[in-house]
Write a structure and sequence with these properties.
Elements lengths: L12 H18 L13 H4 L4 H19 L17 E4 H18 L1 H8 L10 E4 L10
Parallel strand pairs: 1-2
Helix pairs in contact: 1-3, 4-5
């Protein structure tokens, strides 16, 4: 499971669909509706919040907005109406790590998106996150 800290605009079509599905799975975990992935380290940043499901709904809403912009047909009803305004922090090192990780994936599966992304100097975080200086997150498997 990868809950990207990057803005979904950098993902290719396969990445967008995978992120949508994985974020929905994460929402189910946070709601206690599944037995798997309960201890996934990327979910810890949501679990620490007062309203983790509402935060995941807000996370999903940003993905949905990007999907609409691209003309994809994701089911908005899966998001839920309770959206948190909570902002999460992400380290600059984590954002850079994720971007490099994504570039490696794109180089293999979507050369056009790879070429588009590799020229970028400033990487934007997912709309739920504020970037702060710091290293790769300690939950990341390097």
């Amino acid at each position: 499971m990868r809950i990207w800290s990057l803005h979904p605009r950098y993902l290719d079509a396969k990445g967008m669909v995978a992120l949508w599905r994985e974020a929905l799975l994460a929402k189910h975990v946070l709601e206690g509706k599944t037995k798997g992935y309960k201890n996934h380290p990327q979910l810890n940043r949501f679990k620490r919040l007062k309203r983790p499901v509402a935060a995941m709904n807000a996370y999903l809403a940003v993905i949905y907005e990007e999907a609409v912009r691209r003309g994809y047909h994701f089911d908005k009803t899966k998001i839920g109406g309770d959206l948190s305004r909570t902002r999460l922090k992400v380290h600059s090192g984590q954002l850079e790590y994720e971007f490099q990780h994504l570039l490696k994936k794109l180089q293999v599966r979507d050369v056009e998106k790879f070429t588009e992304n590799r020229k970028l100097a400033n990487i934007e975080a997912h709309g739920l996150f504020d970037v702060v200086q710091g290293p790769v997150e300690d939950w990341e498997i390097l």
